[in-house]
Amino acid sequence: TGDEVSSRPEDWKLRELDWSAGTFSPVEAQPGDLCEIIFTSGATAEPKGVTITHANILANVIPVEQEILKYRKWSIPFAPIRFLNLLPLSHLFGQSMATFIPPVLPGEVIFMTGFNPAEIARQVKSRRISVLVCVPKILDVLREFISGVHPEAEASAPAGNWMRRWWHYRRIHDLFGWKFWCFIAGAAPLSVDLEEFWSKLGFLVVQGYGLTETAPIVTLNHPFHASKGSVGKPIAGVDVKIAADGEILVRGANVTSGYFGAAGTDAAFADGWFHTGDIGAMNPDGTLAIRGRKKEMIVTPEGLNVFPEDVERVLNAAPGVKESAVVGLENEGREQVHAVAVLEPGANTGEIVSAANRQLESHQQIRGLLAWPEPALPRTEGTGKLKRVAIAQWLRGAGALPSSNATADADLLAGYSDDTPLAQIGLSSLDRVELMVRAEKGTAAQISEASFTQAQTVGELRRLSRDARAAPAETIRFPRWNRSVLARALRRAALPLVLLPLLRIFVRLRVGGREHLRDLEGPLLFAANHQSVFDVPTILAALPPRFRYRLATAAGMDWFRAHFHPEGRTWFDRFGNALQYYLVTLFFGVFPLPQHEGGAREALRYAGDLASDGWSVLLFPEGVRTSQGEIAPFRPGVGMMASRLGLKIVPVRIEGLDRVLHTSWHFPRPGRVRVTFGSVLTIEGDSYAAIAQAAENAVRALS
Questions:
Q1: Crossing angle for the helix pair 192-200 and 136-149, nearest 10 degrees?
Q2: Which residues pair with 238 in a beta bridge?
Q3: Among residues 139, 320, 390, 666, which one has the fewest Cβ atoms lying within 10 Å of its Cβ?
Q4: Please, how many CA atoms are within 13 Å of residue 489, restricted to the half-sphere of its CB?
Q5: How far is CA 20 from the centre of its chain?
Q6: pLDDT averaged over the chain?
Q7: Rounded to an integer, what distance in angstroms lies between the CA atom of residue 562 and that of residue 71?
Q8: Residue 656 · residue 674 · CB < 8 Å
Q9: CA 114, 120, 126 angle in degrees (round to 5)?
Q10: Which CA distances in Å does 437 have to 140, 149, 237, 543?
Q11: Which whole number is the average pLDDT over 604-628?
Q12: Among 542, 523, 520, 539, CA closest to 531
């Protein structure tokens, strides 16, 4: 790697790489070799690239590994330790908690997109997550969500030991699942109030302190000896001292040797110490407490950096603005972007903010803009630098933080008309999620996070909330118990010893096309025509064992209506339908497929969970059983499932089962049946109807 980059590096898309053996050759690397360059600001005109070597990363990993090894034997009953990582991999802390630390345990890492707190809680429970890695803002959003679902969370904890408190908050622990126990928060300051809230509920909150330049860990709270209100002690091999002006200085093998191109390196590494620009103090117990920042950079609650000059550049280009200054103001423990500007006569601050926010990244969004009352902004003599401290003091005195702030108001939309652009409110991506949660509070509404992100005005948000109330989603508990060790053992015994031999009394089965399955591995999507209630066991009998025992079948919700919606049903109907549901779920891996849009989305997520665990899915895209052996048109749902989950389709043709157990019969008759498997279909494009048509054509061709 030279000092200059002659051309744009080639993009490698993971999904397009060939991961077969022998594709990649091992590369010999020395500790001092450059590993990566991380840019501390993605928006500034002159970003600084931090050069990170293998030795820098190892200086962080090895001390953590040595501490983990002391306790690893106690984690065996809870293995694997699963992490849900909500941090971007472009962030060095996100990399550490995704690729460097978990393998030491060993652990597994789950990633998800979006910050919907209901979806985070669902993933934590369904994926059996132990540790959630996030920025403090996520803890704040989750607190808002938890308090709405279980109001007892805001009440004082009962007196007594931790077991009594755990029992008092058992509904909250059940919401996250009994395996979840820890939050790891970093990249931004964590308020004491937020830490105490989650600790009160019985969850461990671990925080530390670090920077990109320190690869990234400087101090870390020990999970079993956490010191509340601090960011922990320096890790082994790292020295920390406090300068005369309170700035935190760091020295160690984890500290970068400098910046790409060397610009700014000398000033940051004076006297052999890295000058962090943060103000702190050492507690008597050796832990570090962060007091604030010396530098002007604003750190948002999401842990993202905002350089005032970047925002000022956009503001100064707006019509009606002569000059501007941007500062960070704390509001309820959160630092937000605020600005002042010297304006031309007649300029409208609301229009200026809306126009600027449309050009800024979500974390750079301006929360408020006030007109400066004088002809020029205050600057220092000689150097002409903005007096940001004086500007921030003036903003506070001028009421820049009203009590009816968009994220603090009890009714988040109060005071805004329907045509108010959301950009004018100045919300970051996580602020938008928080706004969505509060809009749902006290109702059964659940707004799609994607739909909310696309909303442009307050009126659109209100309409989304009303629509969600008018169309409640299906309430379904999708079966996960049938993938347990005990359930799989029962299925492996019952199918070959009891159920399939009973089937063969009536079904004289012939199988074709098995050669098409010979080199395939799951997960796959088997798409079959639908003739009889015997379809599922017949296909299971035709499949090779490696697919037979890891196959889940989607069945129409109407089959189990009396079980999921027992209102107005007799006891006999409820009992019989529930028994039928649990038996077919246990022995044939059946799961309900709702027709309502909200329930269908949940079913798609469930199918995604199956696929991620290596399970294939059997789907009958016609949606109905035919009466004369004909094939009805395939519905687009098969295309959606294949496309969204990235599954290859295996066409399956059933012939003759309508003459063994017709839809109008109550008892089967012996007969000949043929099941034929076709060549696998690789999905191309995202037209669900076109994919469904291709699957239908493939099944018809198997006659």
A1: 50
A2: 252
A3: 666
A4: 3
A5: 29
A6: 82
A7: 50
A8: yes
A9: 125
A10: 11, 11, 43, 46
A11: 87
A12: 539
Lowest-pLDDT choice from 37-46, 288-297, 638-647, 667-676: 37-46
Give 700's contacts (C-beta < 8 A, 6+ positions apart).
631, 653
Measured distance between the N- and C-terminal CA atoms of the chain, rounded to whole angstroms? 60
Q: Which of 129, 43, 57 lies closest to 86 in space, CA to CA? A: 129
- Across the strands, what pairs with 511? 675
- How high is the pLDDT of residue 349? 87
Type of residue numbered 40: T
What's the pLDDT tens digit per position in 506-535? Answer: 999 999 999 999 988 889 999 999 999 899
What is residue 96's DSSP assignment?
Answer: I
Question: Distances in Å between the alpha carbon of 220 and those of 92, 224, 280, 283?
Answer: 15, 12, 15, 14
Which residues on neighbouring strands pair with residue 299, listed in sequence order?
Answer: 305
Beta strands 247-252 and 238-242, pairing class: antiparallel
Q: pLDDT band at 469, cuts 50/70/90?
A: low
Q: Residues 592, 596, 601, 602: what is their CA dihedral angle, to the nearest 10 degrees?
A: -40
Q: With DSSP H G I counted as helix, E B as strand and the rest as coil, what are the percentages for the chain, rounded to 5?
A: 40, 20, 40
CA angle in degrees (0–180, nearest 5) for 27-28-34: 90
* pLDDT tens string 622-672: 888 887 888 989 988 888 889 888 899 999 999 999 899 888 888 899 999
Rounded CA gap, 541 and 507, in Å?
Answer: 10
Distance CA 41, CA 300 (A): 13
Q: pLDDT per residue over 433-445, tens digit each?
A: 666 666 665 554 5
Give the chain's count of helices (H) and strands (E): 24, 25
pLDDT score at 116: 86
By CB neighbour count within 10 A (0-12 exposed, 13-18 middle, 19+ buried), where does 138 fall?
A: buried
Per-residue CA distances from 369 to 145, 362, 446, 536, 653 (Å): 30, 17, 33, 64, 66
HEC letters along 474-496: CCCCCCCHHHCHHHHHHHHHHHH
Question: Quick one: CA torsion of 53, 57, 58, 62, rounded to 10 degrees?
Answer: 170
SS3 610: helix
Radius of gyration of the chain, Cα coordinates, nearest whole angstrom: 30
> Which DSSP helix (H) or strand (E) runs through 357?
helix 349-359
Q: pLDDT digits over 234-260, tens only? A: 999 999 999 887 889 999 999 998 888
Q: At what angle do helices 136-149 and 117-126 cross, to 10 degrees?
A: 90
- Secondary structure class of 329 (helix, strand, coil): strand
Tens digits of per-residue pLDDT, 296-344?
778 777 677 787 878 888 898 899 998 899 988 876 667 788 899 999 8
pLDDT tens for residues 221-233?
Answer: 888 777 777 888 9
Those residues whose C-beta lies under 8 Å from the C-beta of residue 33, and which sit 6 or more positions away, are 53, 54
Nearest to 136 by CA among 296, 300, 311: 300
In degrees to the nearest 10, what's the CA dihedral of 109, 75, 117, 200? -150
CA-based nearest residue to 578, from 598, 596, 594, 592: 592
Task: Show the tokens assigned to 10.
Answer: 């080639």
pLDDT in tens, 385-408: 678 878 888 888 776 654 333 333
Residue 600 half-sphere exposure, CB side, CA atoms within 13 Å?
10
